[in-house]
């Protein structure tokens, strides 16, 4: 099956999937977008609603479809799954969302899909590893949205603290997209100036307590949003749009996507959100950025939690692979 580089699909038309579809419409990255949902009428309604905006957006075709329509897609975004409820962690969603993911992958792997899977459903690091393991696809073709959203939150909050455009902030959240994530403060900078030098030049004071407060606000942001409106959707839609742009435009950009590790940072048998090169082929290279001893320890703690979660899962191959493995 030949890949159509301008065709994508979104599986799951809840708040997150619909917001991503709207972002794709704004970006004009694709000429064809297929929406799938367990509730076919929901997918049809979203496609109709989005199509009403086409005269004021990019030229594209937006339709509700079935799994038979995704084989030639260059990108399939999976958002289907149970939503995080107030008081729940992302890891609380594992049992419900693994079963949903397996049912989706059974359908996708039964077609001759040669594109990239982008996992957005939570817990995204665990589900990215599960998708890779169950699908049998090369690891460069199975990535997760990772901590791209968290990193955006960090840049925004740090920019507000320093009084500088957040687009000039260069910093990463890595590890789990969840409670054990960590901020790599040792490598954070403002347009090449490390934080200490930037603050000295500006006559500002950024104390360790300030950094810890910003980190906690980033880590807990989803809880705060969910407690107020019940779901997060716009920020993740922007993050997924950024990842999709890197793939379609072959940007070779550095983003902290969720990727299956094969010895990087001394870790394997899991996926973590780590700065990586992303281009047309998906994951191009995982970057082993310098970490100080404290950050290294925090990364290993985060990895251990992911490995414990993965160890409890049934990750047998999808139905279409059962006779070949």
What does this protein look like?
By secondary structure, this protein is an alpha/beta fold. It has nine helices and 14 strands. It has helices at residues 15-27, 40-51, 94-109, 124-135, 148-162, 195-202, 208-229, 234-248, 293-311, and strands at 4-11, 32-36, 61-64, 73-78, 116-119, 142-144, 169-170, 173-174, 182-183, 189-190, 193-194, 253-262, 268-279, 282-286. The strands form four sheets. Strands 3-2-1-4-5-6 form a six-stranded parallel beta sheet, with helices on both faces. 43% of the residues are buried. The mean pLDDT is 94.
Question: Keyphrases for this structure?
Answer:
325 residues, alpha/beta, 6-stranded parallel sheet, 3-stranded antiparallel sheet, 9 helices, 21% strand, globular
């Amino acid at each position: 099956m030949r890949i159509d580089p301008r065709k994508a699909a979104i599986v799951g038309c809840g708040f997150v999937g619909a917001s991503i579809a709207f972002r794709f419409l704004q970006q004009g990255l694709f000429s064809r977008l297929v929406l799938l949902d367990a509730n076919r009428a929901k997918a049809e309604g979203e496609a109709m609603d989005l199509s009403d905006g086409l005269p004021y957006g990019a030229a594209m075709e937006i339709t509700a479809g079935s799994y038979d329509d995704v084989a030639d897609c260059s990108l399939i975004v999976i958002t289907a799954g149970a939503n995080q409820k107030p008081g729940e962690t992302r890891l609380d969603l594992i049992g419900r969302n693994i079963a949903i993911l397996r049912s989706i992958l059974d359908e996708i792997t039964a077609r001759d899909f040669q594109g990239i899977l982008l996992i957005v459903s939570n817990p995204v690091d665990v589900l990215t590893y599960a998708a890779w393991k169950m699908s049998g696809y090369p690891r460069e073709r199975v990535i997760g949205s990772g901590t791209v959203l968290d990193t955006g939150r960090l840049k925004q909050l740090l920019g507000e603290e320093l009084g500088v455009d957040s687009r000039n902030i260069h910093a990463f959240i890595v590890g789990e997209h969840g409670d054990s994530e960590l901020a790599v403060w040792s490598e954070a900078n403002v347009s090449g100036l490390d934080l200490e030098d930037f603050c000295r030049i500006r006559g500002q004071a950024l104390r360790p307590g300030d950094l810890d407060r910003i980190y906690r606000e980033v880590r807990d942001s989803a809880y705060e949003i969910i407690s107020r409106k019940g779901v997060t959707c716009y920020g993740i839609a922007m993050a997924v749009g950024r990842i999709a742009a890197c793939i379609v435009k072959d940007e070779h950009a550095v983003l902290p996507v969720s990727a299956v590790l094969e010895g990087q940072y001394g870790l394997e048998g899991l996926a973590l959100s780590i700065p990586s090169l992303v281009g047309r082929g998906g994951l191009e290279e995982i970057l082993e950025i310098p970490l100080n001893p404290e950050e290294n320890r925090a990364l290993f703690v985060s990895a251990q939690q992911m490995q414990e979660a993965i160890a409890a899962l049934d990750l047998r191959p999808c139905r279409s692979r059962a006779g070949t493995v």
